[in-house]
């Protein structure tokens, strides 16, 4: 009888250990991330935030969007990463940035693989049907880029019927459809922009910041065309029915702006305040 009970308990313990160790293969954790100070688990202020991991704010991004979020020496860095770490610190949590393919990043959030998306996601009305968004943490705009050698495209009207590159599952897919049905989707805007100089694409629609940074840092011979297609409010996405976490994130963003920390981070990466 005792031996039977022993084996029964052993099976239960092993089953629990296996269940707790399961991870989604698409989600990659940046093990080098550190908050600079350990936060006690079970903090009463964060108890109602419905966190994936106690004591941590796990936030996702593609990791392919330089200078917003990308890997350098196997470590996640960039503007989004620093904003995420600062938010985490201010709400009493350790930061846990992870990567997930952009085309499934919303599904991963709704599947509770992470607590938030801090990865330069535009707060669109369509996305608001699935998740909640914080107040914006930067403002940008969709912009058209072409090769510097392209003499055929002089205005947005000239995009009609051209081959346009965009990031997979981005809002830019719909923007491109207004001009053409020749649309090529890429896992990263950087890959699309690199196809402009050799002429594999006629144009790319992407975030203004991403394109301008590629021009300056990578030396890509590209240029903008026309005015911004639209103004975009970039915000933190979290699951619905998590008001406690949403309010905490909004307060953290507001406090960062008020005490000058936000401007300091933004100026470090872009030379200006992206909320102005």
TrEMBL record:
It comes from the Bacteria. Residues 56-273 form the Solute-binding protein family 3/N-terminal domain. The keyword DNA repair does not apply. Keywords: Lipoprotein, Palmitate, Signal. Residues 1-20 form the signal peptide. The keyword Transport does not apply. Residues 56-272 form the Ionotropic glutamate receptor C-terminal domain. SMART domains: PBPb, PBPe. It holds the Pfam family SBP_bac_3. This is Transporter substrate-binding domain-containing protein.
């Amino acid at each position: 009888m005792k031996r039977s009970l022993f084996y029964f308990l052993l099976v239960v313990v092993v089953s629990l250990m296996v269940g707790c160790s399961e991870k989604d293969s698409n989600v990659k954790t940046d093990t080098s991330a550190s908050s600079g100070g350990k936060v006690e688990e079970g903090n009463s202020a964060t108890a109602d935030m419905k966190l994936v991991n106690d004591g941590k704010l796990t936030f996702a991004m593609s990791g392919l969007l330089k200078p917003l979020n990308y890997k350098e020496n196997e470590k996640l860095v960039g503007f989004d990463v620093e904003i995420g770490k600062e938010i985490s610190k201010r709400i009493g949590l350790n930061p846990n940035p992870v990567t997930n393919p952009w085309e499934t990043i919303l599904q991963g959030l709704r599947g509770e693989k992470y607590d938030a998306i801090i990865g330069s996601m535009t707060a669109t009305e369509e996305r608001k049907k699935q998740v909640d968004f914080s107040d914006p943490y930067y403002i940008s705009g969709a912009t058209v880029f072409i090769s510097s050698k392209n003499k055929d495209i002089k205005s947005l009207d000239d995009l009609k019927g051209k081959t346009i590159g965009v990031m997979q599952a981005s809002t830019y897919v719909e923007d491109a459809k207004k001009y053409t049905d020749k649309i090529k989707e890429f896992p990263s805007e950087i890959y699309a922009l690199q196809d402009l100089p050799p002429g594999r694409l006629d144009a790319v629609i992407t975030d203004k910041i991403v394109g301008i940074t590629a021009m300056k840092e990578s030396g890509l011979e590209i240029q903008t065309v026309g005015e911004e297609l639209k103004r975009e409010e970039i915000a933190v996405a979290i699951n619905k029915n998590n008001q406690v976490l949403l309010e905490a994130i909004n307060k953290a963003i507001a406090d960062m702006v008020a005490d000058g920390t936000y401007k300091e981070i933004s100026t470090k990466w872009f030379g200006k305040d992206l909320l102005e």
